[in-house]
């Protein structure tokens, strides 16, 4: 793994033996600005995006296995994941989205971006029916609201994607019916 290979210098490994020194020494690793590299590149192939994402998540899992928190990675990690998901949605790439979300066992498909839009909002706004279906199967909340109070159905209607709006309306009704049935 690229991220972990950066940490394999002998003196750095010795410094890590003292757990309290980890955070202060981690900032000394050269070439660790993966997010900056990716941001400058602007565009990745699906294979590159998947590989980078796997490396990031593997590195985070490794840190967690050592009981080490990663305080400053969360925003960058979420931003990268969201960008990869947006890329798959915009390309109407259901297999790529399935592969991406399938490799992220802990990713919440209802996690909003900085504008309060979830992947379902983005797919509905773009009228991509197959992606909307897949996200709903993955547990996307059809009633989730954007920061300005709109549902995915509202966004689909505003862009005149009636096929998507109709599906979301049916799913919302089924969801409401099941909820009332469960709590009777």
TrEMBL record:
SMART domains: ANK. GO terms for cellular component: cytoplasm; nucleus. It comes from Cricetulus griseus (Chinese hamster). Residues 1-184 form the Protein kinase domain. Keywords: ANK repeat, ATP-binding, Kinase, Nucleotide-binding, Serine/threonine-protein kinase, Transferase. GO terms for molecular function: ATP binding; protein serine/threonine kinase activity. This is Death-associated protein kinase 1. SUPFAM superfamilies: Ankyrin repeat, Protein kinase-like (PK-like). ANK repeats lie at residues 115-147. Gene3D superfamilies: Ankyrin repeat-containing domain, Transferase(Phosphotransferase) domain 1. GO terms for biological process: intracellular signal transduction; positive regulation of apoptotic process. The keyword ATP-binding applies.
């Amino acid at each position: 793994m690229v991220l972990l290979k950066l940490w394999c210098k002998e003196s750095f490994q010795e410094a890590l033996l003292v757990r309290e020194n980890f955070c202060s020494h981690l900032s000394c690793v050269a070439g660790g600005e993966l997010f900056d590299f990716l941001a400058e590149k602007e565009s990745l192939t699906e294979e590159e995006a998947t590989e980078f994402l796997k490396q990031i998540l593997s590195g985070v899992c490794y840190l967690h296995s050592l009981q080490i928190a990663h305080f400053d990675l969360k925003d960058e990690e979420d931003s990268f994941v969201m960008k990869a998901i947006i890329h798959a949605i915009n390309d109407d790439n259901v297999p790529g989205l399935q592969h991406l979300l399938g490799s992220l066992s802990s990713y919440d498909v209802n996690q909003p971006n900085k504008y309060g839009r979830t992947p379902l909002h983005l797919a509905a706004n773009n009228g991509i029916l197959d992606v909307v279906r897949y996200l709903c199967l993955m547990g996307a909340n059809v009633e989730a609201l954007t920061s300005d109070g709109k549902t995915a159905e509202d966004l689909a209607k505003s862009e005149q994607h009636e096929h998507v709006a109709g599906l979301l309306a049916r799913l919302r009704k089924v969801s409401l019916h099941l909820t009332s049935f469960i709590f009777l």
